[in-house]
Amino acid sequence: MRGTSSSDDGLGLLILIVIGILAGVIWFIIQHAAVIRTIGIALILVSLQLVRYSRKQRKKRKKVIELHRIQKREEETRAATIDQKRHEQWLKEYEAREKINNDIKNKIYLDRVVADKRKILIVDDQNGIRIFLYETFLNEGFNAFMAVDGRDALAVFKAESPDIVLLDLRMPKMNGIEFLTKIKEVNHSAVVFMMSAYGELADLHKGVELGASPMWFTKPFDTDELRKTVLLTLYPN
């Protein structure tokens, strides 16, 4: 009987403690109802702001992705247009190449080039290519000039006003694209043929946009084709 009485006393004490805790919690809630309500409202408002921010970020990401798609389509269209122009120009000149080939052999163009005092500027930081082209066009009757980089080429360009420029794209000090930008400001009528290595397609397209001929020459190129193109440009008839 004594053991049962002790258990009942312990259970009663536990119940009293629980009731006391619940009463304290209820009292706290009643006393601080306004604060709790304010905190709850604040949490709801913060949640709503986070939802709005998340939606805005998703919309922003969608706009950025769509903008990138549009830019990519425009770049592809521009590149295709440039390639098409280049192809059409090659086709247009195809029939004239045999005639030019024969005329070159017969030195018909030599007198015309000399008489017209045609000037050509070769811009390339590779000594072998630069000197070879210089001697080639010198033998064709041109007043030929050389430059090892865009900075030197710009000085020669302004001083001599060449009819034709053979321009390498990758050079020290001032590259081919920078050179094209500078001579565009001069607003000269010279025809610029770009010379490039593989893997420079983006630079070639940029060069065409800056005014260079859409007919470029990829190294190693056919020198005879280059000569024909230069002469056909100067004397299309």
Automatic annotation (TrEMBL):
InterPro entries: Bact_response_regulator (IPR050595), CheY-like_superfamily (IPR011006), Sig_transdc_resp-reg_receiver (IPR001789). Keywords: Membrane, Phosphoprotein, Transmembrane, Transmembrane helix. The modification 4-aspartylphosphate is found at residue 168. Residues 119-234 form the Response regulatory domain. It comes from the Bacteria. The keyword Isomerase does not apply. The chain crosses the membrane at residues 12-30, 36-53. One of its GO terms (biological process) is phosphorelay signal transduction system. Signal peptide: none annotated. This is Response regulator. The lineage of its organism: Bacteria, Bacillati, Bacillota, Bacilli, Bacillales.
